[in-house]
Design a protein that fits this description.
alpha/beta, binds zinc ion
């Protein structure tokens, strides 16, 4: 689907990136492995990364107030950052920390950031996956997670809308990503929806400076926007910057678009975490790993896709290579479906 609704004002820093530098320092970033936790701690202690310092932000407009209470974050880590390769150490169980899960149908919104001209296929493939993933055996794994009242995540996902942000600015930090979401909502391009997960999808030439490609392939978090808890995620197209890190298959992939096929696995990862740990205070293990983190880059039994690539699930009419997810039953285990 190419005909996206454009956001209204898209000239760079002055209007788009409205979050304050102070707010930028509070935005949760998405990483999860031990290395990444250490990275976070270093960063918070030393504040050496200069979050938000690269650009001028107007402090007078701070609609996107970051939640300063966040103590942990998540990410889909690049290959090589797997905390437990080969299962050398038995994985710890995932435990509940008292926060909410997402109940009922989860609405997914896609925000296409940047110039997607070189990967138009993404704008068909990703919406198709999002449209079809609800009700699958793969997403059903998330129904093994419940809230304090025992209510479980529902195996239902609705592709609820999309927007385009055609800013030509090619370098984003976490606060910028948050502003992209805020702008999409405040402009009216997308509704303000507490049952939604907003994905900021960046074009192949866009950088995310908090660690896209080096520390994560995607991340999810949440913010309070005028009293509504907004869940959102970042997933970048890795094709130009880090195919080896964020694509399982860098040449031939099930849908003929390695960058997008890589993104879909990361989107699936972040979506699963968003519904089971939307406010980063529900389901994760003693290492801080959420459900999808525990199975990152594990695919289980694969089969040959029509084009000869490897795939492991059918979603809708397509074949995909989607990472496994953690089943929250007995001691727990990674699976492709339930
Ligand atoms: Zn993750």
């Amino acid at each position: 689907m190419i005909g996206t609704r454009a956001l209204k004002v898209l000239s760079v820093a002055s209007t788009l990136f409205i979050i304050s530098a102070a707010g930028a320092a509070q935005v949760a970033r998405g990483r999860s492995s031990q290395e990444l936790n250490e990275y976070d701690q270093r960063e918070q202690l030393a504040n050496g990364k200069g979050w938000g310092a690269a650009h001028e932000y107007s402090s007078s407009v701070t609609k996107a107030t970051a939640d300063a209470t966040l103590t942990r974050s998540d990410g889909a880590e690049p290959r090589g950052y797997i905390a437990n390769p080969g299962g050398a150490v038995p994985p710890s169980p995932i435990t509940y920390h008292g926060g909410p899960v997402m109940l009922g149908t989860t609405n997914v919104y896609l925000i296409w950031y940047g110039d997607w001209a070189e990967d138009r296929a993404a704008q068909n493939l990703i919406p198709e996956f999002v449209t079809r993933v609800g009700g699958t055996k793969w997403f059903n794994i998330n129904t093994t997670y419940n809230n304090k009242a025992g209510q479980r995540v529902t195996n239902a996902v609705h592709y609820a809308g999309h927007a385009a942000n055609t800013s030509t600015y090619k370098t984003l930090n976490d606060a910028n990503v948050q502003s992209v979401v805020t702008n999409a909502i405040d402009s009216g391009a997308l509704p303000k929806d507490a049952h939604g997960v907003y994905f900021v999808l960046t074009a192949p030439d866009v950088k995310e400076t908090s660690g896209f490609c080096s520390k994560y392939c995607g991340w999810h978090t949440h913010m309070s926007l005028n009293g509504t808890d907004i869940k959102y995620a970042f997933v970048g197209n890795p094709s130009r910057q880090c195919a080896n890190a964020c694509e399982a298959q860098t040449t031939r992939s099930p849908n003929g678009d390695a960058g997008t096929d890589g993104m879909v696995s990361t989107i699936a990862h972040e979506l699963s975490e968003a519904v089971t740990d939307p406010d980063l205070n529900a389901w994760f293990d003693s290492a801080g790993d959420e459900n999808a983190d525990k199975c990152a880059w594990q695919f289980g039994a694969m089969f040959a896709a029509t084009n000869g690539a490897s795939a492991n699930v059918n979603v809708g009419t397509r074949q995909w290579l989607i990472q496994e997810n953690w089943v929250n039953a007995t001691k727990g285990y990674c699976a492709r479906g339930l």
